[in-house]
Amino acid sequence: MYYLRLTDENELLTDGPRNYSSSSRCMWIIKDEKKRGALLLRIDSLVTECSWDHLYIYDGTGTRSHQLAAFSGVISGREVSIRSGKALVYFFSDLAFNMSGFNITFAYGKCLNNCTSNGKCTEGICECYEGYTGALCDTLICTDKDRNKTSKACGMAGICSADNRCSCNMHFHGDRCQALTTQSVFETVLTSGDFGARASHTAILVNDTKIWVIGGAHFTGVNNSFVAVYDITKSSWHKIPTRNTPRSRYDHTVVRYKSTIYMFGGVIDERIVTNELWSLDLATLEWTLENNNNNASNAVPGAVAGHAAHLIGDEMFVFYGHSPYFGYMYSIQKYKISTKRWSIVPDRGPHVQGRFGHSLVAYVHEKKEVILIYGGYLLPYEGFLSRVSSTLIEYVCDNRECSHRTLSSGHTPVFRHSASLINDLMIIVGGNVHNESSSRIQECYSSDIQAYDIGLFVSSLFIAQNCPYFNL
Questions:
Q1: Which pLDDT score, from 0 to 100, does residue 288 have?
Q2: Does residue 350 sit within a domain?
Q3: Number of folded domains in the chain?
Q4: Would strands 368-374 and 392-397 be described as parallel, antiparallel, or unpaired?
Q5: Which long-range contacts (CB under 8 A, 24 or more apart) does 275-281 make?
Q6: Of 296 and 9, the one with more pLDDT
Q7: Tell me, what's the pLDDT at 469?
């Protein structure tokens, strides 16, 4: 463990001039005896084995302090602001590939990105000038004096309306009217409230206006609400208190049946894969444990994480996932809500390998529910440490059995991605692309947006406009 004291205006923290060693465990504590306020860390370069070798940053001098970040892969130019002025930096590597490591510069009295020159830096916090917002003061917004006028906040292609939002001309769209209607655009939505940073959570749409976010993995020192709701019409987040709340979990699934949300599986206590089934009554906001966790290897349902689930009628179908006993599951489990009974669904079709971290969408064709499953992390084979899939599988299920067939492959193999069905297009966004059998330097995550046309059975690769956040 190393202690660093700031002696000059800027300092450098590095793992060393050569590639880091296998099984490294290194810790640095940064303190400032002059107590000059917030500390700014800038990652000038970081090259580690994706998803296995990590750099952790804490606001404080211990690992029980508030964790701010966990970095892996290839990163440069990222900044982290530490309010307490004291930081713990911890680096971990496994036995496999050795990369060049990292260089970090740090200084006191500075703000993220220098507030993009659109604000004043006060004790590490940006105080934005009029017309700007965001932690970096990098987002233009309408002001009261801009109402009913053309404004640079609307890209000069719209006017600021009475609610200080942009009303775009007919040929433009986006929060700031920044793109033609013939172009796709991804942007950071300006929201009020806070739902707490998390990953591997679940989200479900209720009544077409609210997105319920449940569970997810989060850093230490963070007091996240287990349930948070995003109001689409008001662009606002609200933490929802519930009764008899389950233990926090991630890599689980949720489906909605009438006024009840059903939550199945996932990882609890950071290491236990569970087969618990919970229900949440949306009227009373009370959770009910429908079946207890059963640790037996032959339990039905089998405990899984990283699976996918879909509701047909009153039956919840659970596809694949990782089991602590059987590895990557290829079976389909089913829960019938009206009878509260679990079963294994017979499946007809060519051999299918189990997988983890795949995506699922569904649509109705000729009065039958059609399920599409894309990508996922597959069982190792022939000496390879892992495989990532680009396969698209189509399922048709009824109350007796499922049948499947393999459709065309996508352009980018991914897992832990997301997918949605929009206007007969299956849109696949991002995902982890790391292949453990390769030691080459590569990004951890894909910035690709893939699309599969369910009518034409054609896959495409979109290059979306304004997608700066896909690799974050």
A1: 98
A2: no
A3: 4
A4: antiparallel
A5: 275/299, 275/301, 275/302, 275/303, 275/304, 276/246, 277/301, 277/335, 278/246, 280/214, 280/227, 280/242
A6: 296
A7: 30
